[in-house]
Design brief:
By secondary structure, the protein is an alpha/beta fold. It has one domain: Rossmann fold. 40% of the residues lie in helices and 24% in strands. It has a 7-stranded mixed β-sheet with strand order 3-2-1-4-5-7-6, with helices on both faces. Strand 2, helix 6 and strand 3 form a beta-alpha-beta unit. The radius of gyration is 16 Å and the shape is globular. The relative contact order is 0.14.
Length: 208
């Protein structure tokens, strides 16, 4: 019965993803706040490989990291722990509802090194060279002007800093690895590593 329910849930999610992908061809559609329950679920955690993704990003104690599009904090909450002691994480999300959920989650976890900011990834929200790491997970495809977003990532990273982009199937905004590399190199980044799984990859770049 549990297996049937799991397969049924995956079928429903696949149907939602297909409809979402078709709609996104006309307009960039970020994950609705109403679906944040799914992003916080154990099944999403398993399918998305939260721990493996953070391992591949390579966060270290003392770093200052920015997540673009953190949603309710599936990655950012554990990332805040990984940069301790002395580190800080910042989440930038376009949707105030997602930021509210992220702040509530951080408060429940007692995290004082996490800051949540409502803002546009294509805008100059932060000072230049203010982060050691910038990462995006299943978010780049939701941004209409991806080139501008990656230029901002380049601007806010310190020289030698890391840009990490993770894409997971069947996300409706999935971006192929070759396309991500093309966009990142156009923004000035140099590729350093690609980690692949059966339904996901993480591509890392450095700012020279």
């Amino acid at each position: 019965m549990n297996a049937r329910r799991a397969l049924g849930a995956l079928g429903v999610l696949a149907a939602i993803g297909l409809a979402w992908r078709v709609a996104s061809r006309r307009r960039a559609l970020p994950c609705p706040v109403g679906l944040s329950w799914w992003l916080e679920s154990p099944l999403a955690d398993r399918l998305a490989g939260t721990r493996a993704t953070l391992d591949r990003i390579g966060l270290r104690p003392g770093q200052r990291a920015l997540e673009v599009g953190p949603g309710p904090g599936r990655l950012l909450i554990p990332a805040a722990r990984r940069v301790l002691p002395g580190g800080e994480v910042v989440g930038l999300d376009l949707q105030p509802g997602m930021i509210a959920r992220l702040e509530a989650s951080a408060a429940r976890e007692g995290l004082t090194n996490l800051t949540a900011v409502v803002g546009d990834a294509t805008a100059a929200t932060f000072p230049p060279e203010s982060f050691d790491v910038v990462y995006l997970c299943t978010v780049l495809g939701e941004i209409r002007d991806r080139e501008a977003a990656l230029r901002q990532c380049y601007r806010v990273l310190k020289p030698g800093g890391t840009l990490s982009v993770t894409e997971i199937l069947p996300d409706p905004h999935y971006q192929p690895c070759a396309r991500v590399r093309e966009l990142a190199e156009a923004a000035g980044f140099r590729p350093t590593a690609v980690y692949r799984g059966w339904n996901r990859y993480t591509a890392n770049f450095t700012r020279p």
